[in-house]
Structure formats: structure tokens, C-alpha cells
Amino acid sequence: MTIKKSSVSLTVDLDAQGVQHGHLSLPYSHDDSAWGSIMTPLTVIQNGSGPTVLMTGANHGDEYEGAIALRRLTQTIKSEEISGRLIIVPFFNYEAFKAGKRTSPIDKGNMNRVFPGKVDGTPTEKIADYFQRYLLPEADVVLDMHSGGRTLEIVPFAAAHVLPDKEQQAKCVAAMKSFAAPYSMMQLEMDPAGLYDTAAEEMGKIFVTTELGGGGTSRPWTIEIADSGVHNLLIHLNMKEGQPVARQSLMLDMPDHRCFVTSTSEGLLEPVVELGSRVREGDLIARVWDTNHTGTGPVEYRSPLTGVLASRHYAGLIRMGDSIAVVALVVDEGD
Ligand SMILES: [Zn+2]
After folding, report:
1. Quick count: other Cβ atoms within 10 Å of Cβ 118?
2. Distance of CA 294 from the midpoint of ligand 1 (Å)
3. Which of 41, 70, 213, 227 could cross-link 90 (Cys pair, CB 3.0–4.6 Å)?
4. Domain at 257-332: CATH code
5. Which H or E element spans position 94?
6. How confident is the model over 8-52, as pLDDT tens digits?
7. Are 82 and 31 in contact (CB under 8 A)?
8. How does DSSP classify residue 59?
9. Fold (topology level) of 9-253
10. What residues have CB less than 8 Å from 48, skipping those under 6 apart?
11. By three-state DSSP, how is residue 179 classified?
12. Where are any strands of DSSP class E within 140-242?
């Protein structure tokens, strides 16, 4: 079987020195543009020798801190400030980003569920395939910055995963800690299949992800965490000089699927504890009120663990199957 060449092309040279701003170009023929292309902006910065860091924001199109920090970085960083190479894609799922949605409106593609992608698939699958076969292999370190999007609000954390290769895991954890978000999370994924995270980790890369807020917007203090986190990571990797921004980080762990509190009802959500609060196992964390009737009691949701309320449903109404909350264990009090 011959492996097909990707129809994605870059308008920049990955091997050139200096700063290049260009695009990842994917032909996309549609009603409004017969010979059109999806032009995803990217910047490549290289100076001398050193590691390659592949940085992405807006993997989900309604998550903004990473997009802002990386878009700024393309404008502000000088090649002489770094040793090595940065490949910066601020708006990973560009069509989703432009629409302000989690997934791409042109093919419903969720970039973080389609890896390793498909060379002859949908536009989102083709871009994932290009990252899988062309960009990830170039990288030593991969930073993919998420937030909660329109439906979730999450305490700001950098995250690593439990990996079979403990040496690789230790490097990921060290990189996560260097980011110095207010929380550092050993993150359990609900379903690791198709994740960009999994693709990068299976290739042996040092991989760091984040969740930095949510609600389909960004805030000055969470943007600052993204900005300083990128700066700190580059210093940690010996790619940039300077002092890291020090910040206390509370170490959290998601040991198993008990962490996820899923709604089994539909209605009006009444959060009972604030995001980031300490909770004890059995504490009431939310009520859901039936809106089809009056005169009935709410469905109550209780914390499955003693820990921190790390994530919550953002909107005022909730449906069956929505994530109400994530409760994570506290590992230590930071250092
Ligand atoms: Zn996301």
C-alpha cells in the first residue's frame, strides 16, 4: 500500500533560520470558492540549534487564552531571543475558530477527536493527518493550550498524563510544572482515542496541555497565565534566557472516572459551590430543577471525592449527559 502525500502545504520553509509568517494551506473546494483553500496562519522561528517546540491554540475554536498568547508571541518574539525552533499555530482548528465554535462548521470536525487524521478524509481529518505525519515528527516538545470553551469553566491548569513510559512522563510533568499555572493536573481523559495529546505522547514527545478558563471567552488574569506559561516553558527548555514567572501551583490528580459528575437530569442548574472550592466527599455541589413543573424538589448532585471543584458546567441550563463538574484530588500544597 502506498501512503498518500498530504494535500496540505506550507508557505514557509521549516528549515530556514529567522522568523517566517505564513500559512498551512489546504485546498477546499466549496460553493463560495471553487478552487479555494483553508489558510491556517502559522509562524516558524528558528535560531541556531536547540529543540523544536510545536505550539497550538484554538484546537477547539471557542477557547481563547492559548490563541491570544500565541498570536501575541508571533508578533513579539525575536529569533535572536531563542535557541532552537518554534512552530506556532495560534488557531489550530481555524474554521471552528473563525465561527467561534468548538468544532468546524464545514465538516463538524472536532480536531481533538480525529487523530491520527485521514489523508483523504474531511478537511479537519486532513489537517490532523498533516500534523500527525509532518509536524509532530519535527517536534521535541508539544504544547497544546485549551480552555473550557462555551460549555465549561475550568480552574486554570497545565496538565500531563499518566504514561506507560515513566521517563517520558517525568519530562512531561517537569514541563507542566514549569508552566506554573495556579493548578497542575495529572489529567485523566474521558476518552483518549483520537486525541492530539495521545498522538503526540505515542510518538514519545514531551507533551503539555492546559485548561485555562472557559465560558467561550477569556479574562486578563487567565491570559496572563497563558503568556507567562509559554515564557516559563521556553526558559525550562533552555531555549530562552530570563527569569520564569514564579507562581504557587496546587498539584491535582484525577485518579479515576469517579472525578466526572455527569447530569442525569435536565433543567435549571443551581451551582452550590464556587469553582476552585474545596469539597468533601458527599458535599452537595449542584441542584438541577425541573422546569416543566413547579412544586417538585431538585435533583441533587454530590461530590464523589474529597478535593477541589476543578470544572463546572457553564450555562444556566443543563441537559441529560452534560458534564456538571469535575472534582480532582489535591496531591500536595505546591512548592
Ligand atoms: Zn479544548
Report:
1. 15
2. 36
3. 70
4. 2.40.50.100
5. helix 94-99
6. 999 999 999 999 999 999 999 999 999 999 999 999 999 999 999
7. no
8. S
9. Aminopeptidase (3.40.630)
10. 17, 83, 84
11. helix
12. 141-146, 152-154, 157-160, 183-186, 206-211
Please give the single-letter amino acid code of residue 199. A
Domains of the chain, residue spans: 9-253, 257-332
**111 contacts 127 by C-beta, under 8 angstroms:** yes
Span from the CA of 214 to the centroid of ligand 1 (angstroms): 9
How many other C-beta atoms can be found within 10 angstroms of the C-beta atom of residue 248?
Answer: 10
Interval between CA 24 and ligand 1 midpoint (Å): 21
For residues 130 and 119, the answer to whether their CB atoms sit within 8 Å is no
**Which residues neighbour 161 within 8 Å (Cβ) at sequence distance 6 or greater?**
169, 172, 186, 187, 188, 189, 192, 197, 201, 207
Question: Which of helix, strand or coil describes residue 269?
Answer: strand
CA of 14 to the centre of ligand 1 (A): 26
Three cell numbers, residue 40: 491556517
What's the CA-to-centroid distance between 193 and ligand 1, angstroms?
Answer: 15
Query: What count of residues does the chain have?
Result: 335
Cα(297) to ligand 1 centroid in Å equals: 34
Residues 6+ apart with CB under 8 A from 152: 214, 215, 311, 312, 313, 314, 323
215-237, pLDDT tens digit by residue? 999 999 999 999 999 999 999 99
pTM for this entry: 0.96
